[in-house]
Amino acid sequence: VHQSKLDFFCKLGYGKQDICKVLENLGQEALEDDVLKELIRMGSKPQAVESQAQPAPLKLVARGSCSTTPGLKWLGEDESDASDSLRPIVIDGSNVAMSHGNKEVFSCRGIQLAVDWFRERGHTFIKVFVPLWRKEPPRQDSPIADQHILEELEKQSILVYTPSRKVKGKRVVCYDDRYIVKVAYEKDGVIVSNDHYRDLQNENPEWKWFIEQRLLMYSFVSNRFMPPDDPLGRHGPSLSNFLSKKPVLPEKKWQLCPYGKKCTYGNKCKFYHPERLQQAQLSVADELRAKTKVPLALGKEEWRCQSSP
């Protein structure tokens, strides 16, 4: 009896030591329900429950040409980023700031609004690229608003300045768009910009596909950063799936058919029809054939009865 109870509770995932203690306290003839109650009271948990409570960290899997090389480490990046289920975010700082400033002022507050929006969603890898000359004092031909925000984001290791220098009084600026696309491509992330990067699309065919599939456009409405709910169009993924590494596909059988009873797809319709639960799952063509075969069969039987003596 002791061995059978021990095997039973071991299959449930409880430890042998806890089971033996409970059986010694309650006796060998104790009921299984009493033993289970005592195990719960002692605070013993099945191993299966403990393993679910502490899931193993997820590993990034290489996905085609958009994956990074194994062993590549980014400066200032924690190992927790690898277990994050959300895609890395790379923001075109100049595009976002000028969009928030109505294309007249480089508004650093627009960058802060975009960063805060992705932070609230739980994204841990957020990088903003801005040319280095934006650290200089503002001029009349290039006004800057809330410039102190750039310093705060730089201290948080979010803002990255692209190189620029002066040669014989002329400013030499590196192409920041190439930084943005390259980092987003290598991290398999999302580019936040209203720019289409057509020159970079023509430069690299892999970048062309990546920009078409991973470009997240946006709008500012009353100091509110608003990306679209359908980044790739009406028939594309939702915003949550677009920003997730593992998109969750909705169950088609629970999506009501937009045509309702007027649907002509029959059993080939991928949506849910509550009015067809009691009906045979036949296509429209099969239903018409079935309806036409019945009167033909009845007519043949009547003609045989009349012609037979």
UniProtKB/TrEMBL annotation:
Keywords: Endonuclease, Hydrolase, Magnesium, Metal-binding, Nuclease, Zinc, Zinc-finger
PROSITE patterns: ZF_C3H1
C3H1-type domain boundaries: 251-276
Record's signal peptide: none
One MF annotation (Gene Ontology) recorded for this entry: hydrolase activity
Zinc finger motifs (C3H1-type), residue ranges: 251-276
Annotated Gene Ontology cellular component terms: cytoplasmic ribonucleoprotein granule; nucleus
Bilayer-crossing regions: none
Cofactor(s) needed: Mg(2+)
Domain of life of the native organism: Eukaryota
Keyword field contains Zinc: yes
Similarity annotation: Belongs to the ZC3H12 family.
PANTHER family per record: N4BP1-RELATED, RIBONUCLEASE ZC3H12D-RELATED
Record's protein name: ZC12D ribonuclease
